[in-house]
Amino acid sequence: MYKKILLPTDGSTFASEEVERATKLLSDDGEVIILSVASKLTATTFQSKKEIEKVNRAMYEEAEGYVNSMAELFDEDMPVTKKVIVGFPAEVICEFAEEEDIDLIIISASGKSGFHKLIIGSVAEKVLKTTQKDVLLVHGN
C-alpha cells in the first residue's frame, strides 16, 4: 500500500482506470494528489501581452477543469488534494513527486506508436525515464 499517490492528468480518457488503481493501492491513512500541468505561452512580436495572458488564463482554467473532473471520480471520504502548476509536464511531474515525497505516480500512456513515438516521446515515457519514484503506467487502447 502507498501513502502518497500522484495522479497527473491531462484530461485523457483513462482517468477512471487511474482512479480505480489509486483507490486500490492507497493505504488507509494515505493521500491522493491530482496534478495537472498548464502550459504557458510567452509573447512574440506578433502577439499582444493581453492576448497571451488570455490564452494562458484559458490553459490554466482548462487544467483546473481536468483536476476537478478527476477529483469527482473519487468517493467523498477519499483524501484528495488538487493541484495545478504551470510548466513543462514531465519536468513538473518529476520535480513535484520529489518535493512532495510521493510514493507512487500513476500515469496513463497515450498509446502512440511508430515514428512519432520515437521522435516525440510521451510525457509518461519521460517521467518513467527521469523519476526515481515508483510508476504505474496505465495502458489504454
UniProtKB/TrEMBL annotation:
Name of this chain's protein: TRAP-T-associated universal stress protein TeaD
PANTHER family linked to this entry: STRESS RESPONSE PROTEIN NHAX (PTHR46268), UNIVERSAL STRESS PROTEIN MJ0577 (PTHR46268:SF26)
Annotated family: Belongs to the universal stress protein A family.
UspA domain: residues covered: 1-139
Gene3D superfamilies in the record: HUPs (3.40.50.620)
Highest taxon of the lineage: Archaea
Taxonomic classification: Archaea, Methanobacteriati, Methanobacteriota, Methanomada group, Methanobacteria
Gene: teaD_2
CDD domains: USP-like (cd00293)
